[in-house]
Every structure is written in C-alpha cells, then in structure tokens.
Amino acid sequence: METIAELENWMIEKVINNTFTPNHRYVTDEGEGLEELSGTYIWYYIERGNRTNLEFFKSEKDAVSFVYEYLSKKI
Prior knowledge:
Layout: H1 4-13, E1 31-37, E2 40-47, E3 50-57, H2 60-74
Antiparallel strand pairs: 1-2, 2-3
C-alpha cells in the first residue's frame, strides 16, 4: 500500500470509520489524523482543540505505511 487512496479503500473494505485521512477529516474531529503540508506528511492528535504533531514523514508511502500499521493494530 503506497497511497492515501489505497489506504482509504482498505479502510472501506475493513469497515473502518475514516476520520484519519485528509479528505475525510473534519475540523470537529478529535483524535488522530494525517495531513499533507508542503510535501511533508504529518500524523497528529487533536484533543479539546489542541493539536500535537506526533510524526513527520517525507513521503506519502512512509506516512501510509505508518497509518496502516497503526490501524491494523486497532482492528
């Protein structure tokens, strides 16, 4: 799995409520999320409106691999 689109399709197949990827993330969502900012991918956590950046990735593939592993452990 190398792209966010592939990750999103995998989440659909596994019936995972997607509040993680950029196109499915909303301002009111709390918890973990992935953002792409100027070619850097950031895994972050939001609680009560406070955001903490947790991980930084130089490539989409690395970010997707991280999120896939994270979600695989939760299901």
